[in-house]
């Protein structure tokens, strides 16, 4: 590989990390409360509201059913409205966030369901409010599982950020298409694949390490 590709690979890696990190932060800030709401409003739970739960669940399932590449194209008008452009690294984060929020919501809901209901009953018997149960029982007890689930979401985002390169989203995917595919330079394609593999392995290692440290069992 020629030396001129090293700066391009470094820049593309930086764009990918930027896209994934910012998208994950925003999506988590919205997706975690969504997951709590999905869990808490379910039948027999502390904020039981079947109708509300059904509405939220339907919207979440509808968004999750849309393939990411179609979602990117479908919300181009929204992306332009929010960031002023439909191409570039910042623009790619809009569909990344929208796709990740319901995914995180369902993952968090699954983690919360793993908490023994006996702990919730014990908190209720001591007069704890629903918000106190969520903040002091549910989230702390399910945190190792939530971290593990969020690690899966980050890895998914890495793949989706590469896919965003297909429509000018920047990052490693964009580099692989423009230089590796369109200019017939297979070494560039191989380099981007290797970098993505290393990035995913690093994310998985960090996520597993954090989850183990949070697990008090």
TrEMBL record:
<feature type="transmembrane region" description="Helical">
    <location>
        <begin position="17"/>
        <end position="40"/>
    </location>
</feature>
<feature type="transmembrane region" description="Helical">
    <location>
        <begin position="146"/>
        <end position="167"/>
    </location>
</feature>
<keyword id="KW-1003">Cell membrane</keyword>
<dbReference type="InterPro" id="IPR035906">
    <property type="entry name" value="MetI-like_sf"/>
</dbReference>
<keyword id="KW-1133">Transmembrane helix</keyword>
<keyword id="KW-0812">Transmembrane</keyword>
<keyword id="KW-0472">Membrane</keyword>
<comment type="similarity">
    <text>Belongs to the binding-protein-dependent transport system permease family. CysTW subfamily.</text>
</comment>
<feature type="transmembrane region" description="Helical">
    <location>
        <begin position="188"/>
        <end position="207"/>
    </location>
</feature>
<dbReference type="InterPro" id="IPR051322">
    <property type="entry name" value="AA_ABC_Transporter_Permease"/>
</dbReference>
<feature type="transmembrane region" description="Helical">
    <location>
        <begin position="82"/>
        <end position="103"/>
    </location>
</feature>
<feature type="transmembrane region" description="Helical">
    <location>
        <begin position="52"/>
        <end position="76"/>
    </location>
</feature>
<protein>
    <submittedName>
        <fullName>D-methionine transport system permease protein</fullName>
    </submittedName>
</protein>
<dbReference type="GO" id="GO:0048473">
    <property type="term" value="P:D-methionine transmembrane transport"/>
</dbReference>
<keyword id="KW-0813">Transport</keyword>
<dbReference type="InterPro" id="IPR000515">
    <property type="entry name" value="MetI-like"/>
</dbReference>
<feature type="transmembrane region" description="Helical">
    <location>
        <begin position="115"/>
        <end position="134"/>
    </location>
</feature>
<feature type="domain" description="ABC transmembrane type-1">
    <location>
        <begin position="13"/>
        <end position="207"/>
    </location>
</feature>
<dbReference type="GO" id="GO:0005886">
    <property type="term" value="C:plasma membrane"/>
</dbReference>
<dbReference type="Pfam" id="PF00528">
    <property type="entry name" value="BPD_transp_1"/>
</dbReference>
